[in-house]
Hydroxymethylglutaryl-CoA lyase (Hymenobacter jeollabukensis), 283 residues
Amino acid sequence: MKLIECPRDAMQGWPDFIPTATKTAYLNQLLRVGFDTLDFGSFVSPKAIPQLRDTAEVLAGLNLSQTKTKLLAIVANLRGAETAAGYPEIQYLGFPLSVSETFQQRNTNKSIAEALAEVAQMQNLCEQRGKELVVYLSMGFGNPYGDPWNPEVLGQFTQKLDALGIRIVALSDTIGASTPETIIPPFRELTAAFPHIEFGAHLHTTPQSWREKVEAAYSAGCRRFDGALGGIGGCPMAADELTGNMATENLVQYLQEQGVPTGLDLAALREAQRMSAAVFAGH
């Protein structure tokens, strides 16, 4: 079981700039919890995501000497990937590849074909630099634009990523459209068809729907989950009425109920929750 904490996703759309020192202190607390991976920042245009323009400064302040947690940075193009790959502390580069043509244009100003060509270049870069590319299939559970969606579409995308040597693929519920009916078939089919690929779930939920979504993904074979403390965040590029991220504390609760060991320091997690409430106060 891998839990990926995503403060980057919580922060990126936050209306008030969170000071660099505040971000750094919060991330250092999250590093004490024992998550598998911390999705900590992004190397994208400051015009697109002004909140994360200080990712390099934040990285310089992280205490990585006593943590097993690995760092993941989101990139939107090859240029960002080259920047991120230059930092030895970063192990994973994450790239959002949409199965919706409309959203791919909206999110990265590229067609799916252009984005796939760039994914191939990023994968080569990662192989050269000893990094691992994580591809998020955004709009992974349906989209509001009328673009085709079904498990077969996800399978076709995964086949292309598999051919490039990509080994971590996260299905992403960019707008909170997922239901158990759209979660179970893709995970069931993909984990069977591509046993050598690690499939993750990046789910957006409401307080009422989180449990059924986690249960659906877990029962269908998913063992990698993204979350954000407090359920804060979403995708600012979707420009729709958004549900929040999957709340990490809910994920932990579900796994504890199932008797699944999380390996987390629960005292450090509680302190991180307290800090999160302070970081994201006032809205």
Summary: The domain at 2-279 is CATH 3.20.20.70 (TIM Barrel). Confidence is low (pLDDT under 50) at residues 236-242. The chain has one domain: 2-279. The first helix runs from residue 7 to 11.
